[in-house]
Amino acid sequence: MDANDRAHVSRSRGRSALLLAGAWVAGLLALVFFLERPRPLFVNVGAGDAPFARGFRDRWERDGLTGSGETMFRWAEDGSRLELPVSAHSGHLTARVRLARFAARPAEIVVESGGRAVDRWVQPPLGWRVRDIDLGEASGPVALVFRAHGEPGDATAVAVDWVEIAGAGRLWPSGSMTGRLLLFLLGPPLVVLLLVRSADLSAAMAVFAMAVAAVAVWRDRLGGAWALAAAALPLVLVVLALALLFRSMARFWPDVAGGRTQALAVPLLVSVAALVAVLHPFHYYPDVDSHARFLEALRVNPSLLVDPTQPWQRRGDVTREIGGQKVPIPYAMVFHATAWPLTAVLDDVTALKTVAVLSAATVVLLAFPLARAFALGPGWAVLAQVLAALLPVLTSRLSLALYPTLFGEAWVVLLLVHLARRLHHLDGARDGAAATTFVLLAEAAYTGSLIVVSTVVIVLTAVQMATGEWQRALRLLCGWAIATTILLVTMYVGFLPTLWHGILPYVFEGGGPAAPPSADGVWLAAWRRVGVFYDGVFPILALGGVAAYRAASVHARRVLASAIAAGAGILVLRYVLTTALRDAKDVELLLAPVAVCASAGLAWLWARGRAGQAASVLLLAGGLVWSVANDVALYAARFLAVGR
Questions:
Q1: Which has the higher per-residue pLDDT, 319 or 144?
Q2: What mean pLDDT do residues 10-21 have?
Q3: Beta strands in 298-456 (DSSP E)
Q4: Residue 547 CA neighbour count, 13 Å, CB half
Q5: pLDDT(116) > 80
Q6: Going by fewer Cβ within 10 Å, which terminus of the chain is more open, N or C?
Q7: 331 pLDDT band (50/70/90 cuts)?
Q8: Could you give phi then psi for residue 386, rounded to 5 degrees?
Q9: Please, which contacts does 465-470 make with residues 24 or more away whose CB atoms are closer than 8 Å?
Q10: What is residue 27's predicted lDDT score, i.e. its pLDDT?
Q11: Cα–Cα distances in Å, from 90 out to 176, 300, 357, 560, 613?
Q12: 578 pLDDT band (50/70/90 cuts)?
């Protein structure tokens, strides 16, 4: 490179740095503007209100006689407080409160703010009503205190659904919240700079984190700011873990990832957005509480990690109705054990969500070496990561709190990467032992992975045998048999009698809402499920990539084709063998292979000239718009505020 070229590169880098710095400053200004604009401060009382609610009845409830209503609420007692982690220094404050009293007699309610009574009324024994309260001029910390007395012997006075405080102008977060906001904005880029040694990647992450912060506060002034603060330390931990994973990947797989820091970009961005999303205080799904009970049970009895078949807290046991009886199903707690050490610095729920987001980001990270093993260039491999991140699979699993599923999926993708890279070397004892180890890890990580990994191995073995590679096929099959046997006689030996007597006799029984009435119905139901998570575009692109993209080695193509065939087979059979495969993880298995092969299909189209390039742009743009729209809809469905 001569002096002119070096000067040109230096000028280009200088312009890029200037643009990134400008974007970061613009994001900071937008964040401050959205935080200070006079938009309502909203608290959805119920699940997720722990940062704000003090002195309410311990457990939140649902309305209705059976507790199945759509409104979550808490009972306010005398002295119950809602404390917002902000101070308002300008504006005239008003509050809207949705209340009810589920009792036979009325109760007198007094609301205090700023040390004085601002409203007093008699709450009749009626359902939900919205009351407007004048809080006066803003003059410091924002808080409401409920003073009331219910029936003799009953401290509960009024049910509170949500509170919306309007009129606050200039806001200042509390000291601890300000510190965590600064950690969110500055900590992760610093970790990237120190461990990955990439100034460009660090700056890009800083700009993206600032953009996410601005959007979060724009959408929800209080909840968004709290989500950013809550995500600060978890994000630092996730970025640290991803950076270490990347360095390990570059060391052990230098042929596919060495020195390519762009492999880390999409997983980092995913971790930023996902952590802010799932740590929003009012984003909730009931299975989060179930995972917290799993973690607590594991803390009390650590042997559940190696023997998940033993009974424990009955509320947390996983059961399925099979043959007219409830059958206990073992549930591997490896995910919960991984989150356990984080509880030294995070609360249980935040630790669980942190490991879940790390698992999702790891799936995206591993899509890069899987794509490179498929002989895709670095740019197309990054596109495969983008598809893996944006297809609605990860969003739906995070929104539905299927955290162990994501953990197990990360280990399954790791197995696929190993097989795609090393299947053609499966000739000696060393590679046979490595394959056995990866199979064992993938199967042990999550109970459902037993079916997923077994199906992939069986399909791949059949393909290898059909192409004349008997020795490699038998080594792979023997490795799987050894790994599965080890798992069955260690973790699941206590479940074998239940499997033999309580499940296998009913495997071929149909019925239930998941079973279509005919063969045509099976195929239609399977296609609809594909459409929910992959639309019609990406499966077609993936099949085209497997068939038409010829740069990949034959063994890598066999691995990805076998994974797609296994996922499709499980997907169809879940509507036939509804007893055995009702909870099968078909769409999760398909995610990384479909993302890689769809990217390969787009690469093949791009190489066909202008017409192919135009087609690839249109298909990709349409698919991404569909994916993002579905991601937003899936995430938004977890929020509910009635009557607002």
A1: 144
A2: 66
A3: 319-322, 325-328
A4: 7
A5: yes
A6: N
A7: confident
A8: -60, -45
A9: 467/558
A10: 82
A11: 21, 50, 38, 60, 55
A12: confident
C-alpha–C-alpha distance, residues 642 and 644, integer Å:
6
Encoded tokens for 51: 């940062």
How many C-beta atoms lie closer than 10 Å to residue 308's C-beta? 22
Structure tokens at 587: 């769409």
| Cα angle 612-616-622, degrees, rounded to a multiple of 5 | 145
pLDDT tier at 9, thresholds 50, 70, 90: very low
Neighbours of 170 (CB within 10 A): 13
How many Cα atoms occupy the beta-carbon half-sphere of 321 within 13 Å?
4
User: Which residues are CB-contacts of 618 (< 8 A; sequence separation ≥ 6)?
Assistant: none
Q: Rounded CA gap, 388 and 592, in Å?
A: 6
Secondary structure class of 95 (helix, strand, coil): strand
Q: Got the DSSP string for 256-268?
A: HHTT-GGGGHHHH
Question: What length does the chain have?
Answer: 644
In the chain, what is the greatest distance between 2 CA atoms, to the nearest angstrom?
89
| Reported pTM | 0.92
Look up residue 524 and give its two tokens: 């239609």
Which residues partner with 116 through β-bridges?
113
Residue type, 116: R
Burial class for 68, CB neighbours closer than 10 Å (0-12, 13-18, 19+): exposed
Per-residue confidence (pLDDT) for residue 513, from 0 to 100 = 44
Assign 315 a pLDDT band (cuts: 50, 70, 90). Answer: very low
